[in-house]
Design a protein that fits this description.
- This is Deoxyribonuclease TATDN1.
- Belongs to the metallo-dependent hydrolases superfamily. TatD-type hydrolase family.
- The chain is of the alpha/beta class.
- The protein folds into two domains: 124 residues, Metal-dependent hydrolases (TIM Barrel); 93 residues, Metal-dependent hydrolases (TIM Barrel, Alpha-Beta Barrel).
- 47% of the residues lie in helices and 12% in strands.
- The protein contains nine helices and five strands, in the order ααβααβαβαβαβαα.
- The chain has a five-stranded parallel β-sheet.
- Helix 4 runs parallel beside helix 5.
- The protein is globular, with a radius of gyration of 18 Å.
């Protein structure tokens, strides 16, 4: 639950970045997935849209105030269009015609919308994170077109650990075992999927992801 204590914790981490090691704020955003799934993971109040809007808005303001990247989680569902809500809040409280870093962890639809924003003259640095779920995207689909057309300098790799364990790492018989979890090192699977979609060597994807990570989070890897 996002409250004043959480807000103060994040703000203090922003103020004392040298000691807190903070490099970004998030994940935060809007999740309107199936209600019962949401209640299973969180308490009922955590799923209220108004609460999510407040949490995203407050963290977006902090990210803007302290000039740090913000990592966005956005998922639409039967409860509504999270993408429009999320982008509206970011445009009002974070982008605001200034140069800011926005790391996006989105569906293909939102990546395309953000691409349009960038092509229309926005100077924001926008990164798109991909998980192993892209292995299920089929050639010719709109999602696959995103993989083919997304510039390498806008790509980051993600596992969403402990979720979305790549299918290559387990057999169907193992899916119910405690070992059925994803780990950061499995991001290599995402790199291979991106390389296949772009018809390039996986090393190109890995080098680009490293450069983008350094750029987005101001790291010296």
């Amino acid at each position: 639950m996002f409250n004043s204590k959480v807000y103060d914790y994040i703000k203090n981490a922003c103020i004392n970045r040298s000691s807190s090691k903070l490099v970004a704020i998030g994940e935060c955003g809007i999740d309107l997935c199936n209600y019962f799934y949401c209640v299973f993971l969180f308490s009922r109040s955590d799923c209220l849209l108004d609460d999510q809007k407040v949490a995203l808005r407050e963290q977006a303001v902090l990210a803007r105030e302290f000039g740090v990247p913000i990592v966005i989680h956005c998922r639409s569902g039967k409860r509504g269009d999270a993408e429009q809500i999320c982008l509206g809040i970011l445009k009002d409280y974070y982008l605001s015609n200034r140069i800011w870093n926005v790391s996006t962890i989105y569906t293909a639809t939102v990546i395309l919308r953000i691409g349009k924003m960038r092509n229309n003259g926005s100077n924001n640095t926008l990164m798109s994170c991909f998980t192993s779920t892209i292995a299920k995207w089929t050639i010719g689909s709109k999602q696959y077109e995103v993989l083919e057309n997304m510039p390498l300098d806008r790509i980051l790799l993600e596992t969403d650990a402990p979720y979305f364990k790549p299918a290559q790492f387990y057999s169907p018989a193992e899916r119910t075992t405690p070992d059925n979890i994803s780990m950061p090192g499995m991001a290599i699977n995402v790199a291979f999927c991106l390389a296949a979609a772009k018809n390039i060597h996986v090393d190109e994807v890995l080098r680009a992801s490293r450069r983008n990570t350094e750029k987005m989070y101001c790291l010296d890897l």
